[in-house]
Amino acid sequence: MKVLVEQLNVFADDRGLVFEPLKSEAFKLQRNAHVVISLPGVVRGNHYHRFGTEVVAVKGPSRVCFREGKAVRDVDVPDQEVFRFTIPPNVSHAIQNTGKESGILMAFNTIAHDPENSDTVEDTLIPVEPVLIVSDKK
Fold this sequence. Notes:
5-stranded antiparallel sheet
């Protein structure tokens, strides 16, 4: 199955941005929703879902990678635009904040989150640089 990529209508004014992350008919199918705020350069995902279909609305600037069969596809979401990705089960995906400020994405999944029986399987599409944490506590 292929990933559906849609550019969303974004309404912007001096207060910020508004967009609708999910089609109204899709709400009844969702069992999980979460919002992610990512620092610059951070990669989220690098996994696939065994059973769940995930819908992710991503505000740019971001890079979204996904594997369809043997091919890996990159989609750059431009600054101040929002793209919606409908990702079928068993399709690896990763999202990287390519901006200089915090990025945002909103994700929905047809499978409820269960930390004891996770639906996700790791699969690295975007390598993650190790983060050095420095503490001034003695």
